[in-house]
Amino acid sequence: MGEAVLTAESECFNRDLAAKRLIQDNPGLPLEEANSRARQLGFDGLLRALENGGTYAFESTLGARSVTKASISSPPPIGQLVGAWLVAEPTRH
């Protein structure tokens, strides 16, 4: 799904790509730590978009609970429209 967004020439935060970049920029950084930092970067972007308005697209394994909780605890400015497109992909095994 994220690949479709990226090829549509839209800006989209991809946690996997962010983790790879973190590892490249910080040799020796464990994968688990890179994933944790990337997840936080993505979540921080969501919170900024909720606080300041604007568009924020991201691919993530964040559960709907995390996104919903953030939307409720940091509501956007009055008059700001918030839309979410949640897509579950079948597991690829």
Description:
- The protein is mostly helical and 93 residues long.
- The protein has one domain (2-73).
- It is 53% helix and 4% strand.
- It has helices spanning 2-7, 15-25, 31-52, 64-73, and strands at residues 13-14, 58-59.
- It has a two-stranded parallel ribbon.
- The protein is elongated and about 45 Å long.
- 10% of the residues are buried.
- The mean pLDDT is 75.
Write the layout of secondary structure elements.
Blueprint: H1 2-7, E1 13-14, H2 15-25, H3 31-52, E2 58-59, H4 64-73
Parallel strand pairs: 1-2
Helix pairs in contact: 2-3
Give keywords.
single chain; 93 residues; mainly alpha; two-stranded parallel ribbon; 4 helices; elongated
Short description:
It contains 4 helices and 2 strands. The protein has 93 residues and is mainly α. Helix 2 (15-25) crosses helix 3 (31-52).
Order of strands in the sheet with most strands: 1-2
Overall domain count: 1
> What is the count of helical runs?
4
Strand-residue fraction? under 5%
- Which of globular, elongated, flat, extended, rod-shaped describes the shape? elongated
User: How many strands appear in the DSSP assignment?
Assistant: 2
- What's the mean pLDDT score? 75
Report helical residue fraction. Answer: 40-55%
What would you call the structural class? Answer: mainly alpha
What is the oligomer described by this structure? single chain
Largest sheet: 2 strands, parallel
